[in-house]
Amino acid sequence: AQSVTQLDSQVPVFEEAPVELRCNYSSSVSVYLFWYVQYPNQGLQLLLKYLSGSTLVESINGFEAEFNKSQTSFHLRKPSVHISDTAEYFCAVSDTGTASKLTFGTGTRLQVTL
Amino acid sequence: DTGVSQDPRHKITKRGQNVTFRCDPISEHNRLYWYRQTLGQGPEFLTYFQNEAQLEKSRLLSDRFSAERPKGSFSTLEIQRTEQGDSAMYLCASSRSKDYEQYFGPGTRLTVT
Prior knowledge:
The structure holds two protein chains of two kinds.
Chain A: E1 2-5, E2 10-14, E3 19-21, E4 24-27, E5 31-38, E6 44-50, E7 56-58, E8 64-68, E9 73-78, E10 87-95, E11 103-104, E12 108-113
Parallel strand pairs in A: 2-12
Antiparallel strand pairs in A: 1-4, 3-9, 5-6, 5-10, 7-8, 8-9, 10-11, 10-12
Chain B: E1 5-7, E2 10-13, E3 19-24, E4 31-37, E5 44-50, E6 53-57, E7 65-68, E8 75-79, E9 88-95, E10 103-104, E11 108-112
């Protein structure tokens, strides 16, 4: 079984400031790691994923996340946020064996203000 | 690719009534998933299908819940004898079996009064 912990339920940040959203996981097997984003009144969208290879993965809109196996973490970072990044961010894992169900964290609400 | 669609988007029902939700996955996706999301929580896995076969069910899925995917295309999720605790957003997602990205629909928000 897997579990995902997102300790920060809300992260307020000013526009153009850097941000880090934390994600830690627990699993007895190897996992794939994901970040999903949910904009207001929209469905979940995949932001980025780690399956294998380079531990640093990037999204098209400037977010990046680094898989740290020893720390069992997959923190999400952006060097300079924009108002449009305001959303709920969910970290998720699935085991590499079946690559089926996702186990999600409770989410972090990123609120970007001027 | 028209995306994953769900119907209805909102459903208000009285306790004890039965409800049924429909999910239409992306056409070439053979895996279909159901999740439930309550306020302040992340989505929780309920069940998934590969083609028409239901391969896994969560312990969250009580006997009052049943899901089908009869022809390996659309899926229905039925809740019998609804309870107030069933109030939640029900999410559907689909994927290709060899592609690990799940594409989510907009969800059906169920309110049980």
